[in-house]
Amino acid sequence: MDPTAEVGAHPGGDAVEPWLTLAQGYERARAREDSLDRLVEWPAQREILGDVTGLSVLDVGCGNGAKLAELVAAGATACVGLDISGNFPPAPPTGMELVRGDLSELERVPELAGRTFDRIMFLQSIGYASDPVRTLRSARATLADDGFLLVTRTHPIRYAVERSEQNGTTLGEEYFSTGRFTYRHRGWNDQVALTKRAYTVSDLLNIFSTAGLWIEHASEPQLPEDARRRYPHKQAWMDRHLGILIFKLRPLPGR
Ligand SMILES: C[S@@+](CC[C@H](N)C(=O)[O-])C[C@H]1O[C@@H](n2cnc3c(N)ncnc32)[C@H](O)[C@@H]1O
User: Fold this and answer.
1) Half-sphere exposure of 111 (CA within 13 A, CB side)
2) Which of 8, 66, 143, 208 has the fewest CB atoms nearer than 10 Å to its CB?
3) Widest pairwise Cα distance in the chain
4) Which of 35, 40, 128 to mutate to test the pocket of ligand 1 (most atoms within 8 A of CB)?
5) Other beta carbons within 10 Å of 186
6) Which top-level group of life is the source organism from (predicted)?
7) How much is the pLDDT for 180?
8) Helix, strand, coil shares, percent, the chain, to 5
9) Which residue numbers in the chain have pLDDT < 50?
């Protein structure tokens, strides 16, 4: 795939281009002992996935595939990770395949044709879809019987807090603004600007129902007590920015 062909090809979604340079900085930050992904997000995501023995998993926007590799080590089989960055290890573990592709066109990824999966994950990646409803519908079509989707997104309040501080506006003004905004993640690579589409919690819920999915479970995971004590700077961050939203989604019958 020609990565430059993707630039500007996502009018509705968050800008994808930065990930072509951001991928390594992101994975370095994620691997840190005090990263919120390690302390809060992945443990909460893992708990919802439960026992994965013998289950096939599709990880959409998988980064370097490290989470999928953990699931394979825990017994998952026939797993596929898909990411646009192509920042993959040279030899992924047996039982998983890493594919460079675009989540905005899942139905056109040859490696997914005719396949079904017991678990499909969009961990901090659905925002990059040019049309999230289309992407979720495609994912739903590849879900095995009794399968579910695990979707996470940054709490929209987080961005509203940052923008209200930057712009001297109120939380409500920023939360309900519909424009795009740009931010730099200092922990990943402060040279790379990320452009995002603003969204509210209602926007997310409406995307799920329009895609024919219902929420079996939702959560807003927080730091466990021992991590609060060990990493007070992370608790201070969570107190201001809330963290992420996690959704376990199943297909609505008959849709
Ligand atoms: C915030 S990272 C999350 C990575 C991983 N899912 C995790 O939980 O650590 C977002 C990921 O989405 C990928 N991504 C962005 N746009 C994409 C697209 N159009 N198609 C596939 N992957 C994309 C990025 O390359 C990046 O790996």
Assistant:
1) 16
2) 8
3) 52
4) 128
5) 8
6) Bacteria
7) 85
8) 40, 25, 35
9) 1-10
Is the C-beta atom of 63 inside 6 A of ligand 1? yes
Q: Which residues contact 171 (CB under 8 A, 6 or more apart)?
A: 157, 160, 161, 164
Q: Which two tokens stand for residue 218?
A: 């939702």
The secondary structure of residue 39, as a DSSP letter, is: I
- Report which ligand 1 atom has the smallest distance to the Cα of 66: 9
Tens digits of per-residue pLDDT, 86-129? 889 989 999 999 999 999 999 999 999 999 999 999 999 999 99
Which pair of structure tokens corresponds to residue 79? 């797993």
Q: Which residues, 6+ apart, have CB-to-CB distance to 140 below 8 Å?
A: 149, 211, 212, 213, 251
- The amino acid that residue 141 corresponds to is A
CB 193 within 8 A of CB 184: yes
Q: With CA atoms as reference, report the closest residue to 194 among 17, 12, 2.
A: 17
The b/e string for 37-48 (b: 16+ C-beta within 10 A; e otherwise) is bebbbbebbeeb
What domains lie within the chain, and their CATH numbers? 3-155+199-251 (3.40.50.150)
